[in-house]
Amino acid sequence: MQTEFLQPTQEHIISVLMKKNPSLNEEMLRSAVAFIAEAHKGQFRKSGMPYTEHPYEVAKILADLKLDTSSVLAGLLHDVVEDTPHTLSEIKTRFGEDTAFMVDAVTKISAAQKQDNKVEQKAETYRKFITAMAKDPRVIMIKIADRLHNMRTLQYMKPEKRRIIAQETLDIYTPLTHRFGLYQFKSELEDLAFKYINPVEYKRIIDHLLNSKEERERYIKSVIGPLQIKMALEDFDCTIQGRTKNIYSIYGKMQSRGCGLDDIFDIFAIRIIVETIPECYLALGYVHNLWTPLQGLFKDYIATPKPNLYQSIHTTVIGPENKMVEVQIRTKDMDLTAEKGFAAHWAYKLETQRSGEELSWLERLAKLQSEIPDSVEFLDFLRVDLKPEGITVFTPKGDSIELPDGSTVLDFAFAVHTDLGLHCVGARINNNVISATKVVPNGATIQVLKSHNQEPKPEWLEIVRTVKAKQELRRWMRTSISQESRILGKELWERELRVFKIQQAQQPSPESICKNFGTPTLDAFYERLGQGEMPLSDLQKFIAQIAPQEYKENSTVSSPVKLFLKDQADETNQLPVEVGNEASLLIHFASCCTPIPGEDIVGALIPKRGIEVHKKNCPELKKVPTSRLIAMEWNVDSKQEFRCHLRIETDNRKGITADILTEISKANAFLERMSVVSARDAGRIRMEFRIFRREQLEHLISRIEHIQGIREVKRI
After folding, report:
1. How far apart are CA 324 and CA 265, in angstroms?
2. Could you report the per-residue pLDDT of 248-266, keeping only the tens digit for each?
3. Beta strand segments in 621-669, E
4. What are the DSSP calls for 23-92, one per residue?
5. Which CATH superfamily is domain 205-343 in?
6. How far apart are the first and last CA of the chain?
7. 642-715, what's its fold?
8. How does the average pLDDT of the chain come out, rounded?
9. What is the DSSP letter of 49?
């Protein structure tokens, strides 16, 4: 390759890059610098500087991380395809396939490629980026370096644009730096984003740190001094450093503890760096000899490394002047990984690292993004999944699992194995059995309890926190809804055949059914019918064409129609759909009338949802075409409880609430929620409870109405 002759400024860039990483291919760098100078000629940033300033700075960050030549070249070229007429094929020809792949990965989906709204466009860009990142993790280094320099120059953007970019940085990019162990970048990105999202709090913390700088430095010396003396007396060789925590971290402590700046004492950390792992634990003993440790704030990330390979011992002690001090103890190798992230090593070990467990979350995320069709939902999942892990829990075999704060037994079960999550009934923690929906505590060892009779419930989707649990539940429900729809659709079809007394020999062929209703298979026809996508009147018109003569003139049936629950010996014995009082994937209870067992009910076929159960006299049924109504009745054998709401108007009499609760207890109803509002001479009580049947509810209402001071009892 011919050596390029560059301008003095460009020569300086080459000199800086080579100094940061002497192993880079200088000729390739010179060619790339000359190429982007021509490509971005006449383009300027918001700051007024030539556009090439940005790719130069991105390349410097990558070279400082000791990434390989292809990565640094991609940093230099990353905006060429997006902002200039040059194509990806040109980059591939001149700078190689690896470089072209990474440039393409960080190039946004353009408006020309995606005609939908900005959310859709952004989601598609992230999908593309994550897929590429799973194939080659160096992609993330380029994207983070790009974002870091953009954040450093964000002051030149319009205020509203600053906030949007800053929030996206906190939601997506800082969690990514955490996942890849890039703590040096994480702190800077957090502080830069916080500066524009909450400028008032940012300035207040900055002013506090400036005003307390001398006092803080004095205190750090008062901690480091005794430590150095202790280590010298023990003839223990180590390096001791003190540093103030970043601004966003301090703000996070204020929020989590609900306190002000003056109440935060542990805004700095002491770091002890040693040579070997045994020396880490020896240093820990010396620290605890000096000061009293706080047991609840001890974390051993050496024995149990974080998924991003971060290792260190964290202990918080009561230091001089009774102030909390965090001490971090690690080896030199651990310190290097903590500062620059293990991702930097992929430049040299791509093939061996790519199969490691540390990439499992990335491969899972890449798989999930292809399975979530809705863009807004995908972005929400991405924000949740990328958040730093909140807790660490353990399997009975001792394997650690990272989960977000607030995760439940179900989240843990799905993290272990999908089948375990689908059939989870609870868990055993410290010999205590808890339900599947309970939040799990940090550090717990969890034994999942399962039963093959247990099936997921729709409400689980609102309980679980992790992306995997939500996605597996959605997948199971899609499959189950499809199966239930086919069964229900087939029952509806067979019911219509019975109504018209069509014998098996007279029944239309599957081919003619599919052709008439525009479905590829008979199962697809049943599924559409069962999911409420096809009015029953369409079935009746089709069947009437082949029905016996006496039925052709009367091709419709009085509504609501009846459905055969199963084949009966007597074909005239028509039965309505039986339903228990528990919602399923295809049967939902209308919130407008909240029917309970014992009340006359009717079903409405709702497209994409299945059957919605209403009370027979519900006014909302007037909006539903009669061709979509199905006769239904309660399953008398159902033993499930049912939710019910009452509003009770009362006098403002002392003890009246206790009297009502007594009657609820006598009626064997389970109170779930109650609110009481009282004025000078009146009161209103709202309550939600579980009950079995209408007769039980009517008896309870009657008993409450007879209580002294009750004005009205109304079901809502």
Report:
1. 6
2. 888 887 877 777 776 666 6
3. 629-634, 642-651
4. TS-HHHHHHHHHHHHHHTTT-B-TTSSBTTHHHHHHHHHHHHTT--HHHHHHHHHTTHHHHSS--HHHHH
5. Beta Polymerase, domain 2 (3.30.460.10)
6. 81
7. Alpha-Beta Plaits (3.30.70)
8. 81
9. S
Question: Which of 11, 82, 97, 672 is the catalytic position?
Answer: 82
How many angstroms separate the CA atoms of 279 and 302, rounded? 12
pLDDT of residue 118: 66
pTM: 0.60
β partners of residue 277: none
- Residue 256 half-sphere exposure, CB side, CA atoms within 13 Å? 9
600 is catalytic: no
Cβ-contact 21, 63 below 8 angstroms: yes
Classified as helix, coil or strand, 435 is strand
Res. 641: pLDDT tops 80: no
Q: What is the H or E stretch that residue 690 is in? A: strand 682-691
* Contacts of residue 501, Cβ cutoff 8 Å, sequence gap at least 6: 547, 548, 551, 571
What pLDDT was estimated at residue 365?
Answer: 67
Between CA 452 and CA 695 the distance in angstroms is: 34
On whether the CB atoms of residues 647 and 682 are closer than 8 A, the answer is: no
What are the C-alpha distances in Å from 696 to residues 141, 171, 292, 444, 669?
65, 51, 61, 43, 9
Does the annotation mark 371 as catalytic? no
**CATH level 2 (architecture), domain 404-465:** Roll (3.10)
11, 27, 83, 600: the active-site residue = 83
Q: How far apart are CA 33 and CA 388, in angstroms?
A: 37
CATH code reported for the domain at 8-201: 1.10.3210.10
Encoded amino acid at 471, one letter: Q
- Average pLDDT of the segment spanning 383-411: 78
Condensed to tens digits (0 to 9), the pLDDT of residues 573-615 reads 444 667 765 556 677 788 788 888 878 888 888 877 778 889 8
pLDDT-based confidence at residue 549 (cuts at 50, 70, 90): low
The residue type found at 596 is I
Chain segment 86-127, per-residue pLDDT in tens: 999 999 999 999 999 999 888 875 433 444 566 666 767 777
Domain ranges of the chain: 8-201, 205-343, 404-465, 475-634, 642-715
